[in-house]
């Protein structure tokens, strides 16, 4: 007998936010940090950094609520094909983070545009 499909979106909507802290301790490697949203059963976090044309620069998974571009010391899965380029002062970039639960439901999406700030 087949198991019914579970429609989780009816009980847990995906939360959308732009709440992410970006620290610019090294100009070409900002650190992103965030908090869980209303639903806090995230098991893993997927981070994407894109350029101004929305091209993928970096795609990584971590168990932590932080990621430093492009420091893979806390990365558990790297989907980036090549080492990403250094980020350039005053260019436009995008950051997207998805908090994912054990059953692969995306509980939280954070999206934020940013530029590398001069120190």
Uncertain segments: none
Strand content: 35-45%
The sequence of SSEs as H and E is: EEEEEEEEE
Number of helices: 0
End-to-end separation: 62 Å
Overview of this protein structure:
The chain is mainly β and 119 residues long. The protein has a single domain, classed as Immunoglobulins (Immunoglobulin-like). It has strands spanning 15-17, 21-23, 31-33, 42-51, 56-62, 66-68, 75-78, 92-101, 106-115. The strands form 2 sheets. It has a 6-stranded mixed β-sheet, with no helix packed on it. Strands 2-3-6 form a 3-stranded antiparallel β-sheet, with no helix packed on it. A hairpin with a 4-residue loop joins strand 4 (42-51) and strand 5 (56-62). The relative contact order is 0.28.
Please summarize what this structure is.
By secondary structure, the protein is mostly beta strands. The chain is built from no helices and nine strands. The protein has strands spanning 15-17, 21-23, 31-33, 42-51, 56-62, 66-68, 75-78, 92-101, 106-115.
Spell out the blueprint of helices and strands.
Elements: E1 15-17, E2 21-23, E3 31-33, E4 42-51, E5 56-62, E6 66-68, E7 75-78, E8 92-101, E9 106-115
Parallel strand pairs: 1-9
Antiparallel strand pairs: 2-3, 3-6, 4-5, 4-8, 5-7, 8-9
